[in-house]
Design goal:
Strand content of chain A: 25-35%
Number of domains of chain A: 3
Oligomer: homodimer
Helix content of chain A: 10-25%
CATH class of the largest domain in chain A: Alpha Beta
Number of strands of chain A: 32
């Protein structure tokens, strides 16, 4: 039995200075975790109990789904990650170090390479597959901005599993099997989730879905349609309009548009100086050319221009996802210097993309000094635009895509807005925020090919294995459980992950109170109920209640003045409901309440 | 139930090339672990099961002893380790790295600093103490020579606990409490141990003991006396002889001793050219001056000479322990170059220590160019020696300690030999080899003082807390259990740590055999017995038996030809004993055997 008098715990009345979100504040204040360094936390006794319960649910469902548990080192040699180029692609997110002999190591952010090599080491035939192996293990990521306590840490615990199959159909089955296990896990944890289509990003592979837990404090934005479409914002694709016949379109013409460096000022001047007959010009008639600086994992920086309708902002998250593993930021003054042809506020396709390329020179050829130019999917052939004329104070009107200009390619880089049509036609999108709690990938053959994992197939031929990878943020799940289950007084743990079931509070000074409380606590424990007993002799009832509410056990059993009339009080933390129980019934009724609440 | 047909396992018939000791060979061959990098291992499913059982025994006894479990990060900031100077003192054994902002971090080899700071953070009064907190956690040490698989790894799991007390008596009680828990843990694990006095080394503190598991493959040497003295070789102290009156001693005299660079050649020439009347000269009459290069954690290298009787070798392990945190190696040619006064093979006190110091110059003063000179405890005042005269081919005889020369201090650097007298007079020492499986320290106030951990005492005065630290090598314990429990066929796990209790082997081709075996396996499992069922249809009985012996379950249940006469065979792996059981009794008798073997 845990006793408050000896439990290694100090609750705090004040929020920690660096905490912004409720889960972070409360987990620290209630003595579950403690910061050791930015994004790096120590687990105190109560926190460790919650963590163990979450881990256990994950483990049970992985085992039930046929996963076999293994455990890899966190400290790994460079070579396997070099073979897949992730040593470089991870960029500054990877903790790198050298050992005493100068050999390069990393602290693994995820273990695709090592799992691939292990299976290669042990297995050689299709008969050995399918196989799903997993670990619950400490991972490292040198986040630029660790935040929100456990929600985005630099040392954290993940469950990562990996499936190995010979055929695409096998991969699909293994993927669906893990997906189903994830549904069970998050349901058992009591974590609300939305499964959304996702980008695979640096992980590579063909298909991926995220389990997002909807919450205001989430860093991820996702969309949903009434017809059931769901995707994270990076994965949303834009419905492409049909091309327009341009045979009757007027010729492009350059006009003076003085002092129009912004879309708003351009629309104003267009309507006043160059009005159109049928309707007003709007921002949607303009083509905005956004100059970006992109950097490769090797550190090479260059420019890229994205052309998108003037009524949409560029979305850096979507751009970065589309351009992964490049990093993206707005171009700086220094970036512009080598390009006098870029006239800020008046940039147009004339100096960008294929049309800026000398005759007979293909993209990337020597002599091609043009900046790559990628277009929003809405800029289909035949669409007509007002856009920069590459001279100060001048724009070109009726510039027609396909006829007057082209891009080097298409990019999904414009913001997604509420009300946009879902790509599958299932209705208008709504936007929400969430935290990624799971991510499942069909990696395909990328890792197996890079590391030469092959098995003999039924016909005795060597086949590259196809893989899936499946992650759950275990420490993050603890944070989200706290985030989703609290009120202004403190935490309110779901019983299946609570550090203990019943918080027995002895109030008053009489020995008889403490004797009764201790007896209840012992009898509850004898029946398998997990108890924290607040046995502190000289602490006021007010402080004890505050602590109990902060710590967040599902049930609080108050033993005090009521004893005089033969009762104790059982409170349900989540609802605040209180129940007077006759002393004789206290244990049985409390046990019954806990057992009824606990999942079967 | 584990099934061989799907278990992620490949047993190997060949020993891995890099393995020297049986535990390493067998744990790899039987598919328990797999090397990921030098001294860094992956745990496969069966290995992880053994590890979990060992961890669980450790956890139960820690909890029973009143310890509270917490969990610290492995990646830690430099500052706390800087405050205790261990950032530097750990030298090349510490994995150091910088994060993306250039801040220094380390992978913790042990967590004294962090535990101290955590208690400082939470506690402030004597009423909060005593406290013992612990973790079971992954640790890192960049060993110069990782070896023997899990026995000396670079990433490994330790249980480390820390006690906090106000008084010395409190520390002693906490220490004894942990010591008793260790006795229980190693007894439950079935690991033989010897508790020996130890040096505290880099850890600091006043008292420490090691739990050594005696084994031929151990790197540690320890001594035992018939009277119960036990110490690791670093901690053995030399009984100091009484000083000898030198008033009647003859004067020292330098003699020609051509071609005597070794002790053996010197003794020969001494006996032939300068014989003594009463007896032959022996190596014990000579004083050997060993020139060492010592390096500080900061990397400063300098010379040191140790004078010891010529019949004893210098023991680098004892020297290094005595000089910690300096590292020690024999001086090289380059080291000798700045010191023409050191004539190799003929070095004597004349150019060393105080007698080599200019008049009026104290050690360490400016102008003191002399090399520090430390003497073996046997070189007491009045002892007379043949030693180098600092000229080629010449030695000085009757050089008398205290009269003719002194050292700058005393050092325990000579080898300990079987038959040496125990320092407590409890008889002659015997030497044995072992592996450290536990180490308990009375740290005292070193860490608390360095990190300012104080609490208010009963009188309201601030007191520096006194601490203990207590470690168990958890992964190392797994290796030792394998090392101590194997034969030429494979592993023989003690049942309390075995990955499963019964290995059911179906031999033959008839469906009836597999049906019976599967039924036994299921019925055993229904009774709580952990089973691995070898259900592979096309594998020969010979291969299955070899695998079963290699994997090392305590019981092997062979289901095959015996079915025709209504029997199956239950083998006890450790003894090789086999028992024919009637089919009807198989499950009950096997359950009974397992339950009888399992500790209560």
């Amino acid at each position: 039995m845990l006793r408050m008098s000896t439990l290694f715990l100090r609750t705090l009345r004040e929020d920690p200075a660096d905490a912004e979100v409720a889960s972070h504040k409360l987990l620290v204040r209630a003595g579950y975790i403690r910061r050791a360094a930015p994004g790096i936390y120590t687990w105190l006794p109560l926190g460790l109990k919650v963590l163990a319960k979450v881990e256990n649910i994950v483990r049970e469902e992985m085992d039930a789904a046929g996963g076999q548990e293994v455990h890899f080192p966190a400290l790994l040699p460079r070579e396997p990650y070099e073979a897949t180029n992730r040593w470089t692609e991870y960029g500054p997110n990877l903790f790198r170090l050298a050992d005493r002999k100068g050999a390069d190591y990393l602290l693994a952010p995820t273990h695709e390479e090592m799992f691939t090599l292990l299976v290669k080491d042990l297995y050689s035939s299709y008969k050995d597959l399918p196989l799903t192996i997993y670990q619950i293990q400490t991972k490292y990521r040198d986040e630029a901005r660790p935040r929100a306590g456990l929600l985005r840490g630099r040392e954290f615990i993940m469950k990562d599993s990996y499936s190995f199959d010979v055929t695409d159909e096998g991969l699909e089955a293994s993927y669906q099997n893990q997906r189903q296990a994830y549904v069970k896990i998050f349901s058992r944890l009591g974590l609300e989730y939305v499964i959304v289509q996702a980008q695979s990003g640096a992980m590579g592979g063909s298909k991926s879905e995220e389990f997002l837990s909807p919450t205001e404090v989430g860093e991820d934005t996702f969309v949903r349609s009434p017809g059931g479409y769901a995707a994270n914002v990076e994965a949303v694709t834009t419905p492409v309009p049909a091309a327009i016949d341009w045979s009757d379109a007027p010729a492009a013409h350059v006009e003076d548009t003085p002092n129009t460096p912004t879309i708003a000022s351009l629309v104003d001047v267009a309507n006043s100086a160059h009005p159109r007959a049928d309707r007003e010009w709007t921002a949607a008639d303009t083509l905005k050319n956004v100059v970006l600086a992109v950097t490769t994992p090797e550190g090479d920086r260059s420019l890229l221009v994205v052309g998108l309708p003037g009524n949409r902002e560029a979305d850096m998250t979507r751009l970065e996802a589309a351009l992964s593993p490049l990093t993206v930021e707005p171009a700086t003054e220094d970036d512009f210097k080598p390009y006098p042809q870029l006239v800020k506020g008046y940039i147009g396709p004339g100096v960008l993309g294929p049309q800026a390329r000398p005759e007979g020179i293909a993209r990337g050829d020597e002599g091609d000094t043009a900046i790559p130019y990628l277009l929003d999917p809405r800029v289909v052939p035949g669409t007509r635009w007002i856009t920069g004329a590459n001279e100060p104070g001048r724009h070109v009107f009726e510039l027609t895509a396909g006829r007057d200009f082209e891009g080097d390619g298409v990019i999904e880089g414009a913001e997604v807005r509420a009300g946009d049509e879902a790509p599958d036609g299932s209705g208008p999108l709504e936007l929400a925020r969430g935290v990624e709690i799971g991510h499942i990938f069909q990696l395909g053959r990328k890792y197996a090919a890079a590391l030469d994992l092959k098995v003999l197939d039924v016909n005795g031929k060597q086949q590259v294995v196809t893989m899936g990878s499946y992650g759950i943020g275990v420490t993050r799940a603890v944070a989200l459980l706290a985030e989703n289950n609290h009120d202004e007084l403190g935490l309110r743990w779901p019983i299946q992950v609570a550090p203990f079931h019943v918080h027995v509070v002895a109030t008053g000074k009489d020995d008889s109170v403490f004797e009764a409380a201790e007896r209840f606590a012992k009898e509850l424990e004898a029946q398998g109920i997990e108890v924290l007993y607040d046995d502190r002799p000289k602490v006021s009832p007010g402080v004890k209640f505050k602590d109990a509410e902060l710590l967040g056990a599902p049930y609080i059993l108050v033993v005090g003045r009521g004893l005089e009339t033969g009762t104790a009080e059982l409170k349900t933390r989540a609802t605040g409901a209180a129940l007077e129980l006759p002393v004789a019934d206290v244990v049985a009724r409390t046990v019954a309440a806990v057992r009824a609440a606990l999942p079967a």
